[in-house]
Design goal:
This protein is of the alpha/beta class. Helix content is 51%, strand content 16%.
Length: 178
């Protein structure tokens, strides 16, 4: 299977986003940081696929002793856990430095001012946590509207809502074959 054509690479500072989005902050404050991470992953899967982004969601190890790990969630989303003692900021900074020679587009999503300046210094674009939240919500609404419109189009005729057996019987009745 061929690699998908990505419009951009999106690098997301996971815990910065968790601390900035009301829905995720509420989960975190209720003592369920894992649920906040999982919800962010779920939102990023849909957003990344819809926007055609290759997304790297980065969580730092914080006080964990676990080694660095990468989890490929979909073709559009991978989750990166840093080494023990390494911050997501330093991981993203190194990623920006390596990306610098890449002709593609890199967007860093964080509200950390130092990270913003570092990312832009390497030529990457910057998106605040609030802007990413607004984009994710707008994309979700747009996708739902499109699905509703498609569903309405397929339900245009009453016969389409009937079971296949009922459609066959109706067709036989219409042509006098019964």
């Amino acid at each position: 299977m061929a690699e998908p054509d990505y419009l951009a690479t999106l690098c997301v500072d996971g815990y910065n986003i968790v601390g900035s989005w009301p829905e995720l902050t509420q989960l975190r404050d209720q003592g369920d940081l894992a649920a906040a991470r999982d919800r962010l992953m779920e939102l990023m899967v849909n957003y990344s696929a819809y926007q055609q982004f290759q997304t790297h969601l980065v969580f730092d190890a914080y006080a964990q002793a676990n080694p660095a790990a990468v989890e490929t969630v979909t073709t559009h989303l991978s989750v990166h856990y840093t080494d023990a003692g390494q911050t997501a900021d330093s991981y993203i900074e190194r990623y920006c430095a390596r990306w610098r020679s890449n002709p593609g587009r890199l967007i860093v999503a964080t509200s950390d001012r130092a990270q913003q300046l570092t990312a832009m210094g390497y030529g990457a674009e910057w998106m605040s946590a609030q802007q990413l939240n607004a984009d994710v919500l707008a994309t979700t609404r747009q996708h739902r509207r499109q699905r509703r419109t498609q569903a309405k189009g397929s339900q245009r005729f009453l016969a389409h809502s009937l079971s296949p057996e009922a459609q066959v019987r109706l067709q036989k009745m219409r042509f006098g074959l019964q």
